[in-house]
Write a structure and sequence with these properties.
There is one protein chain. The protein is an alpha/beta fold. It has 16 helices and 18 strands. Helices cover 37% and strands 20% of the residues. Helix 2 links the parallel strand 2 and strand 3. The longest helix is centred in the C-terminal third of the chain and has 25 residues.
């Protein structure tokens, strides 16, 4: 399968966002979304985000009375044991806060639409903790990795990514060669078998095929109702209407007593809570209620995927007046030279910000190892260096805005560099992708923060976001 097959026409009634929202309201459910990096918020608006997960943090979030709460676990940057422990901590704290506030919660494991991440480890952990602490038995684990806005779709059980205007099987893309989370299968049942080491066979995976999805929510519900015992389900999704049909079918099955865990891409939560896609934010909206800060913003680029490097090049070509400052990765990996280098980088950025935007990026030659654990350690070391610089800049000269490019980068910059504990997702910066947060209290209060995944958008997208945010006094 080298190209995108043509999906069938719909035979059922189209599902609206209000249809799903009504089903959610009937159950009174709040989704707790464990986001393995912060880019999952790019498809939603007006929802609370936590970068810490103690019980009082969840109490604050549940008191917002939102249909979903995001928790930045950042587990894609962790090893297996640490990832499992963090998932456990989040669920235990969320269940305690839910009991304290009278909130009924269900859990979503949000991960990458190109299939990178700790699967099945994370859903296995969630299921075990739910059984242990809440007596819940999971009937099915539902996989919905599609992200149509970013060119990731699932059809007839196969997952595709759009590359250069053409859909290719994800197993043939650069993402499948990931040093830590690599894989070979594009057929999702086969992928499940591959990732579970054969514990779940491809033949046992239930595929919600596009014909069922497009027959309508009742047809989806009818497939789901008989499932028990933690069956794995894969849902075909080509567009937003497909997502809504799947989500309403899930909600109807939950109303009938089924218990599901979700492993999903970014737009699932928007569809599952019945939220309309919000138009991209404009400059006047973004800065309407924040302190006036003259000078420049800070763009932090850590991702090394090819798309990010092209986006960085376009930004630099369009805005030559924006000073580029480089964190040299080989120097950062040398403990003897790293401190002086990072201090110099931070001081240079603080000097430049009063006069305009600054682009901070890591050197573009990717440092990696054949050992997945070593590759993760390199990523963590580099991310810690970026955090040190951002924190120093925040203390010396708070930027007008911050854009962070890359999953691990944007998570660590938020939680540790800007020291954001609670935030609210305001909405997208580009249609369906790239989210803007409003930090709640703390040293970053009043600084719009943009979370930009490494693998979304086109070559012009980073420049377009900065264009929207740029101070008219420093065009």
């Amino acid at each position: 399968m080298d190209h995108r097959p043509i999906p069938p026409a719909r035979t059922g009634t189209a599902v609206t966002a209000s249809d799903v929202a009504a089903a959610v309201a009937r159950t009174g459910t709040t989704l707790v979304v464990l986001d393995d990096d912060p880019t999952g918020t790019q498809s939603v608006a007006d929802l609370p985000v936590l970068t810490r997960w103690e019980e009082p943090d969840f109490v604050w979030a549940f008191e917002q009375r939102s249909p979903a709460v995001y928790v930045l676990t950042n587990t894609r940057s962790l090893g297996r044991e640490d990832a499992a422990a963090r998932n456990r901590e989040v669920v235990v704290a969320a269940l305690a806060a839910a009991a304290r506030t009278g909130t009924h919660v269900r859990f979503v494991s949000r991960s990458d639409s190109t299939l990178r991440g700790h699967f099945p480890l994370e859903t296995d952990t969630l299921a075990a903790v739910l059984a242990e602490h809440d007596g819940r038995s999971v009937d099915a684990v539902v996989l919905v990795p599609a992200f149509p806005d970013a060119g990731r779709i699932t059809l007839h059980g196969w997952h595709f990514v759009r590359v250069g205007g053409e859909f290719v099987p994800v197993g043939d893309s650069e993402f499948a060669a990931d040093a830590t989370f690599g894989f070979s299968s594009s057929d999702l049942p086969a992928w499940v078998q591959e990732k579970t080491g054969g514990r779940v066979s491809a033949a046992d995976v239930v595929v919600l095929d596009i014909d069922t999805v497009r027959a309508g929510a009742q047809a989806v519900r009818d497939v789901l109702l008989p499932l028990t015992g933690g069956r794995t389900v894969v849902a075909d999704t080509v567009d937003e209407d497909d997502l809504r049909a799947v989500c309403l079918g899930l909600a109807l099955a939950e109303e009938a007593g089924r218990e599901f865990l979700y492993r999903v891409g970014p737009p699932f939560v928007r569809a599952r809570i019945g939220q309309e896609a919000r138009p991209p934010l404009e400059r006047a909206e973004i800065f309407a209620d924040v302190p006036v800060r003259r000078g420049g913003g800070l763009v932090v680029v850590g991702s090394h995927v090819g798309l990010t490097s092209r986006q960085l090049a376009v930004l630099q070509a369009e805005r030559p007046q924006a000073r580029s400052v480089v964190i040299d990765v080989p120097t950062v990996l040398d403990p003897a030279r790293a401190p002086a280098h990072l201090q110099a980088v931070g001081e240079e950025i603080a000097r430049r910000l009063p006069d305009g935007d600054v682009v901070l990026h890591t050197s573009r030659v990717l440092q990696r190892s054949d050992d997945p654990a070593e590759s993760l350690q390199i990523s963590r070391t580099v991310s810690a260096a970026v955090v040190d610089v951002v924190r120093a800049v925040l203390a010396a000269h708070p930027p007008r805005f911050v854009v962070a490019k890359g999953g691990i980068t944007s998570s660590d910059v938020a939680a540790h560099g800007l020291q954001i504990r609670h935030a609210v997702v305001r909405g997208p910066m580009l249609p369906g992708i790239v989210s803007l947060w409003e930090p709640v209290a703390g040293p970053a209060a009043g600084i719009p923060y943009v979370v930009f995944a490494g693998n979304v958008g086109d070559d012009d997208s980073l420049a377009a976001v900065v264009r929207t945010l740029a101070d008219p006094a420093h065009p």
